[in-house]
Task: structure prediction
Amino acid sequence: MTYLFTHWHTVAERLGEHVVLVGVSLAIALAIALPLGVVVARKPRAGGITLAILSAIYTIPSLALLAILVALFGLGTPTAIVALVAYAQMLLVRNVAEGLRGVSPAARDAARGLGFTPLAQLLRVEFPLALPTIVGGIRIATVSLISIATVAAWIDAGGLGTLIFEGLHQDDPAKIIAGSVASVALAVVADVTLRVVERIAARA
Result:
């Protein structure tokens, strides 16, 4: 724990890199997952194929996927973002689809009765009602990405994993502990915060 307090500025810098890496990846992943989730919810056959592909990607070990992507795109943060976005899809798309499927037919009928277009019905009725489930998926994906982003330091993506890998190379347990503790703390804070958001969405 000594390194954590004596080099707090370095830990804070790596923490900031980690938050940005996860935040950017999650935003891109969510922008892709929302329309994909609609497709999965609306079209069972196409949805089944989509989920099967995303599930296969999710089962690839993180180091193996990073190694493949490095061969294609090189080292650095952009490659790490591609990997994180790919990993997040399964969790996000599945929850978006489940949330939309859980919307009651009565709510859809009421929206159509009010003259809503299909897009307006989706945005103003279905997504709001599905929000608790969607936020649950975002919470799980966020915690997973925080963990995987730690491994992404292996390809020079920065973040808290840098401290862990430096500690391993330099035989410096203090660095390893600092990076590990900060990663766990970030995951816990993210999980607790999004659980609160999830409960608020469920009550809304």
Summary: The chain is about 85% helix and 0% strand.
